Amino acid sequence: MPQFERYIGIDYSGAQCPDSSCKGLRVYLADGSRPPEQVHPPPSPRLYWTRRGLAEWLCGELDRDIHTLVGIDHAFSFPMAYFDRHQLPRDWPSFLIDFQRHWPTDDRKTYVSFIRDGNAGKGLKRAGDRSWFRLTEQWTPTAKSVFGFGVNGEVATSTHAGLPWLLYLRNECQLPIHFWPFDGWEIPQGKSAIVEAYPSLWMRRFPREARDGDEQAAYAVAAWLQRADLSGSLGSFLNPSLTPAEREVAGVEGWILGVV
Questions:
Q1: 5 near 32, Cβ under 8 Å?
Q2: Listed residue (179, 147, 145, 150) closest to 72, CA to CA
């Protein structure tokens, strides 16, 4: 018996500012057992999704009380070394609040690069080192550091752009959402959930057809989540084999679904 009714895959983009139309921001939705289909933004002069528009749409969808599993392609937290350097409590909700105060990348007309350069926010007081990796990234050979700006296949910009919108969803959605694994490794029945996804794990498992790279990434996330739930294997991925110490670290740093 599947736990979820819908599966949403999001290929994220940290380009430009929160209200910019981003070609790299793509959304696919699989309803029940039907194949994923692309979800386009509401009609407007903007051709593609904006980060703000996507967060508002997603909040509305999750408030419809249709049990939904959402996979988003950016990191949800930072390595433990970041918490230690900045003497932060090892608590994910507190991390999100502190990050948004220093990296207000959800502010209008604010680029990630503006904060990196010291022209907005207080991000220089919350910097990291590109040599730092989360435990889940150490287990994933091709994963990049969340502080590795400017490298091929980087996730740093999208992560720094996306984290404030996780806080937005946590605060603004009327129905409670389970953010995995921070709210627990087991997702309660009847709750929608948001997980960190890494499309590179799954993109080659599904025929590409006429989709471009960003579309294929979002499609693969939605399709894999759907397949794992319908096949009954999702539960094993939600409960990776970790030692108690590793589980404690991952409860702060987060975990990429599918990394075992």
A1: yes
A2: 179
Is 206 in contact with 223 (CB distance < 8 Å)? yes
Walking along the chain (260 residues) 10 residues at a time, the average pLDDT comes out as 97 97 98 98 91 98 97 98 98 98 97 97 97 97 95 95 98 97 97 97 96 98 98 97 98 97
Q: How far apart are CA 176 and CA 54, in angstroms?
A: 18
Query: 3-class SS at 252?
Result: helix
CB atoms within 10 A of CB 247: 16
Q: Which residues contact 215 (CB under 8 A, 6 or more apart)?
A: 11, 26, 28, 38
Q: Which candidate, 15, 22, 256, places its Cα nearest to that of 142?
A: 256
Q: Where are the alpha helices (DSSP H) in the chain?
A: 51-62, 80-85, 92-102, 112-116, 135-138, 156-172, 213-231, 234-238, 244-253
End-to-end CA distance of the chain: 23
